[in-house]
Amino acid sequence: MSSQDRTGSRRARVIPIAGMAIVGALALSGCTAENKNGWLPSERDTTNHTAGIIDLWVNTWITVLIVGLITWALIIWCIIAYRRRKGATGYPKQTSYNLPLEIFYTLIPLFMVLVFFHFTNVEQESINARNDNPDVTIDVRAKQWSFDFNYLAGNDVKESVYSVGVQAELDGKPFDKSTLPTLYLPVNRSVELQLNSREVIHSFWVPAFLDKKDMLPGKTNYMTLTPTALGTYDGKCAELCGEYHSEMLFNVKVVTQAEFDAHLASLKAKGQTGELTEKYDRNPTAAIADHQKK
Description:
Blueprint: H1 3-29, H2 33-36, H3 50-81, H4 99-128, E1 136-143, E2 146-152, E3 161-163, E4 182-186, E5 191-197, E6 202-206, E7 211-215, E8 221-225, E9 231-237, E10 249-255, H5 257-269, H6 285-293
Parallel strand pairs: 1-5, 4-10
Antiparallel strand pairs: 1-2, 2-3, 5-8, 6-7, 6-9, 9-10
């Protein structure tokens, strides 16, 4: 057997083995929890929205990966099938246009964009839909550089109470997260967060909830959700809002109804009843209105 025949035989054995190894690695990596969640910073059922968001994210990646594989296969096929042959001379046959092909590669991407838009819009509408009668309503007030939480009287809250947030002090060393301002939410109860800012643009972000909304001075944004998993989650401001933006941190504790009631009772016992409204803003709306009248 010639050396060329031995090389060809060895290559014929290596290629299938390498292909099987790659397919096996891809299949095994698909079994990890991180892979199933699309490497998002959340469990599937942290809130009533997270499963839908994860499904949209993962299915979108699967779809574009399939499209990518087909595209790469066609590119490789064209390179091999229409490569310059030995002994060929001059230019190959030149084609100025191909109308069916041009219609195909115009309509297919357009169809894909519309499909992605449809599913994204459906999910976004679901996330942004407000609840007319939420079990708990909380007025969240962002300020440089912390958050105040007003638990407003309503279905599950008998009397309005509040907690005052203070800025975290970071010095590059590990710190006690329990000292951060903490937003308490009862598990499996619908919650509306009314997001306001006391002076500049901030952004309310809890990565585990897979949702983030801006907090604008003079405008209220809303976040409606039902937390479905007990636990403590990190929260932070996601909008560069000044010198100590990085220290604008908070916790979210999803607790049982009894623990939630106990927290409200503790705030009441401290005398923190009522609300920390816009009169504590740096530029209260009333002050702005008075200024504009002058």
